[in-house]
Amino acid sequence: MNNVDPKSVKSCILSGNAILGIELGSTRIKTILIDQDHTPIITGNYDWENRFENHMWTYDIKDIWKGISASYLDMSTRLRSKYEVSLTSVKAIGISAMMHGYMAFNKKGQLLVPFRTWRNTNTGAAADALTKLFHYNIPQRWSIAHLYQAILNAEPHVQDLAYITTLSGYIHKMLTGQRVLGIGDASGMFPVDIATGTFNQTMISQFNALIRDRNYSWKLEEILPSVLQAGTYAGRLTKEGAWLLDPSGCLKPGIPLCPPEGDAGTGMVATNSVAPRTGNVSAGTSVFAMIVLEQELKSVHPEIDMVTTPSGHLVAMAHANNCTSDINAWVELFREFSVLTGHAVDKDTLYPLLYNLALEGDADCGGLLSYGYYSGENVLPLDEGRPLFIRTPDSHFNLANFMKTHLYAALAALKIGMDILTNEEHVKIDTIYGHGGFFKTPIVGQRIMAAALGTSVTVRKTAGEGGAWGIAVLASYLVNNPSDKSLENFLKSVVFSNDDSICLKPYQNEIDGFAQFIHRFKQGLPVEQSAIRQIPSS
Predict the structure, then answer these.
(1) Helix 143-152 vs helix 124-134: angle between axes, to the nearest 10 degrees?
(2) Model-level pTM?
(3) Which of 209, 338, 508, 509 is the most buried if burial means most Cβ atoms within 10 Å?
(4) The Carbohydrate kinase FGGY C-terminal domain covers which part of the protein (predicted)?
(5) Residue 331 sits in which domain range?
């Protein structure tokens, strides 16, 4: 994090000019405070994990609010400790969270079924049927796929629906009372019409006709949130909302909020990749590449999501549900071993140590294979996941190759999806920006990603702050854009005017080595598929 002058921080806080951003990621809830120059002042964190309950990936609703308030408390405590100032108000607030999934509520605002996250892959029948109906790819993660699958399953809660939303939309409603959603997050619920900036009305009519014989008391347009583009006023923090964020009562109500967004949109903002022919890769628990398109794709690809930037530009997204979870599990195993030896090494030391060692591995990982799948992958396709590590008797088995294999495997599904865009659709990409935990260790994640995609990868210093910083920037765009610049121009001329990026070009031997690994990876997929069939999950 950049160093900022304590006097300027105090002035910014006391004048109410700081901006607050909160993002709920897969494994961490992060709260960030930035100043007028979009420089991070302080952050707070809360670690959490999804649960696999009743064959569904979920987060308990109580954990959502416990995590948000704990993350906010961590931020405010650090702020008081470092700068001797308390936070009572900010200029604007932004809320971001994991995209997709299904949160269904009745008229009383009660959650009808546990939150179904993007990670679930039980909606295949619904996704396939809707893709055929709309002639538009509907991935299993999307909210409409979850809703239609619940209808196909004749789940009784569907009759009582008053509205459905995403995680960011739910939190925003609890803070403001407004049932709205940023267009980027909305485009992962149901297809949007780029021309009108709202949900596709033709497809809404098709869906209503599809379920007419069910005789529900609602129509689809009645239960979806209103769609807002970046820079649009999205309500103010209520008294009840202020207490949810800050149970101490210090934070005052009345603060404006920008439209709530998904982690894909905030990732695009955090990397300044919202203009056509730019793209970014967000790599953490999941991994996805977002490429801003110049025109519609020629064909419908079930492996490619079509979403939008927070300002409404069309985006092709290659998404994989699994990325660093298996890497994290192995690092934890190494940490346990270090404790056992009497020479405990913490994770902040282990990660860069092991990541850098991976660069010493063979270009093709020495014949090793890994399938770090905790959940299914529609790109491959896999309905479920079984983490596997495979080697042959003659493979080059050492720690460097072992770590490199897991880093390569974390990007395998993404690579297969991206090849569709570049090889079949001939999508042109000028710049790829990387952000997320995969890039936290300098250089290593960039080199691995560059080898996978066969193109230069740029990482900015602020990219480590991730989507929390991105949503804070979107909140700033709401209140600090007097000249009415487009989001692209605001980012270019105001936020990123002083570029602090590092760009790495791929090494040809690493491109070739990754290609050899992917060939072997595809050959071994039947082993993973067999493990899913033969070894039941708990």
Answers:
(1) 110
(2) 0.81
(3) 338
(4) 280-477
(5) 325-410+508-534
